[in-house]
Amino acid sequence: MELGARGPATGPGPALGQGGLEALQHTVGSVLSSYGWYMLLAVVAVYLLVQKVSRSLAARQNARLGSAEAAEEPDVVVRRQEALAAARLRMQEELNAQAEKYKEKQRQLEEERRRQKIAMWESMQEGKSYKGNLKLNQQEAESGASASAVPKSKPNKKPLRGGGYNPLSGEGGGTCSWRPGRRGPSAGG
Q1: CA torsion 41→43→47→48, rounded to 10°?
Q2: Residue spans with biased composition (Gly residues) (predicted)?
Q3: Residues 137 and 116 sit within 8 Å (Cβ to Cβ)
Q4: Which residues lie below 8 Å from residue 137, measured CB to CB, with a gap of 6+?
Q5: CB neighbours of 178 closer than 8 A, spacing ≥ 6?
Q6: Which of 120, 155, 162, 170 could pair covalently with 177 via S-S, beta carbons 3.0-4.6 A apart?
Q7: What is the 3-state composition of the chain as percent helix, strand, coil, each rounded to the nearest 5?
Q8: pLDDT tens track for 71-86
């Protein structure tokens, strides 16, 4: 036989290869069965870490590109700032107009209160009841303020229970009557 040629499977080479493959399978199987979950968690953690790093790199790249665009086109930045300033000015004007309306309404209310106090004082000086006058003045003010609004009258409601209802008497109720418990020793064996 020649040295380079191999004969049938009688030599030590192929037998070691199959035995080594079985040993490798047994070793890998035992490692996976012992540390499989830990290895899976480590792979997931590495994956999430890679995702986070790639996102942060992409954000940095976008920030560089954004700053480069702003440096290249200052007229766009100026137009954007002018539009922002105009919008702020409009909002401030609307707020000032609302504040003026509110102040005017408060002045009118103060004036109305002052008039009511004067009318109450005058009626007291004349010896009349000022509470009845006050109610009349308030009704006049409300009707003057809401001239277009129609006053709503309350419908006649019947009372929920009769006038002589007493919850502790046990009368007049349905199944909800209260009775005191028995006194004395408890029953037991």
Answers
A1: 20
A2: 161-175
A3: yes
A4: 115, 116, 119, 120
A5: 167, 168, 170
A6: 170
A7: 70, 0, 30
A8: 667 888 889 999 999 9
Half-sphere exposure of 32 (CA within 13 A, CB side): 6
Q: Please count the residues of the chain.
A: 189
SS3 state of residue 16: helix
CA distance readout (Å), 56 to 14, 48, 50, 61, 63: 52, 12, 10, 9, 10
The rounded distance, in Å, linking the Cα atoms of 32 and 9 is 33
Joined together, the tokens standing for residue 146 give: 């809401």
Say which residue the tokens 């001239």 belong to: 147
- Burial string for 57-70 (b: 16+ CB within 10 Å, else e) reads eeeeeeeeeeeeee
| 19, 26 contact by CB (below 8 A) | no
pTM: 0.32
